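Raw record, unedited: DNA repair protein RecN
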Amino acid sequence: MAKEGTVLLGLRISNVAVIEEVEVTFGAGLTVLTGETGAGKSILVDALGLLLGGRADADAIRAGCDEASVEGVFERTPVLAARMEELGVPDLGEEVLVRRVVGRNGRAKAYINGSMVTVGVLARFMRGAVDIAGQHEHVSLFDAGLHRVLLDRYGRLEEQLAAYGRDYAAVAEVVSRMEALGGDESRLRERAEFLRFQLDEITRLEPESGEDVRLDAERRRLAGSEKLKRQGAEAEQLLSGEESSAVETVGRALGLVNEAAKCDATLAPVAQALGAALSELEGAQRRLNRYVEGLESDPARLGEVEDRLDALKRLCRKHATTLDGVLQKRDALETELSTLDNRQEVLEQLARERKAAEERARRSGEALSRARAACAVSFGTQVREGLGMLALGKAAFEVRVMPGTQLKAEGLDDVEFFFSANPGEPPRQLAKVASGGEASRLLLALKRALADSDGCGCYILDEADSGVSGAIADVVGRMIRDVSGHRQVLCITHLPQVAAYADAHLLIRKGLKGERTVSEVVPLEAGSARTQELARMMSGVEVTREALGAAEALVRSAHRVSGPPRARREVAPEGGSRGRLRRSA
């Protein structure tokens, strides 16, 4: 099992189509889901698609209900942990709870660990966590835009990609600087004139850092000079006036305590404290006297300060910043204007830098191309091996690495997969593969080749084995089992040969509850229950003795090839069927 891929631990679906309430737990390895057509197997896949940010359809809500909900518990991985930190979503430990609610009014709500998010955020959060593959849709491997990413991941080319990415970024940075100096001469002259106008406006005022704070303090002092002078004089009178001033009162108290201290030495500290207080009061009185004498009403100076402050504030408002920000803007204007004034010389220097940066990027890009070409051979060989196992041994599969000369963010190459099922026919783009059975087998061969390198931890195969029958079905089962050794696989299948290889088997069946049709999920234990379901898949409604014998033979054969089912890591509901899904100890 992949160490970093996300594993689906549990799923709860409420009021979706014919499902009233279903809770399913999943473990590692291969889990198959079987049941008669229309029992509701694909509803589970559609519900899981909602947790991945898929489109919500109000028509899918069960009749008579106002809303439908889907909850999923996923194993916390470093990737999900980083995304939770980035989004500010609470991280609750080893598990991540994702919930989606669809209302009858068409409104949808989404939650991650109980925190409400938009559906778009949910889609970004779950991106790459689960790969849903069906016969006709959700087959991301058939998207030509992803082929380069898949090949790079297969070849583990992270270091080469990072080296090229750094060199390409250096080229882009130089190009951006050149483009800023490009364009016609008239536009550049207009830009230079505008910069000079802004710079002159700032330099004429000659602002200084912190000047606005100092001027504001001076303005308040000048504006309140008369009041300050009156209050200062009154305070000075209280300190040193003729009668009952603070200095006189403390002085008399000090004399009395000094006399008493001659008889009782314990009063000496009190005398010292009073002496210190008297000294402080006298000092304060002198400073206050000088302050009052220095205060002058100066309307002219007040007007100058207010005009200067207004000019500084207008400048700050114009540039939408503080005075220090204006000073920084002045420096930036000077730098840009100097660059424009010396444009030709700067462009010549940048052209030399660009040439050197492009040469470095081209060398690292060519090294990346060689690595991709080597990986393409190995990857193509592995896919063809898988196709051979699936009775498509004469099919052609190619990974075409098409080098170019133009530097691009992803390298010099275009990468695309080509396929032909029929000998003599030229390989075509995957998107043009028409046969359902061939497409299913190619999908499985690709999954097998990518299983050890794909970053996705959970594959959902929604009848991806459709169109396969006979002896090939057993090979398909073995191949899906092989893939499940690297990734968690949930497989909806009609093939008993595939179901026989499962580590866990879930039966989806419909029944009546009162007057309503409901679907339920029944875990089948190894033994007679699973054998009975495999026999039903072989013979239909009536399970014959021959079908039971064939089913038992299928299970024995699967065990001989792959061994007994692997141990499951269970997820149990907490607090009953309505409780939060959690992983058991």
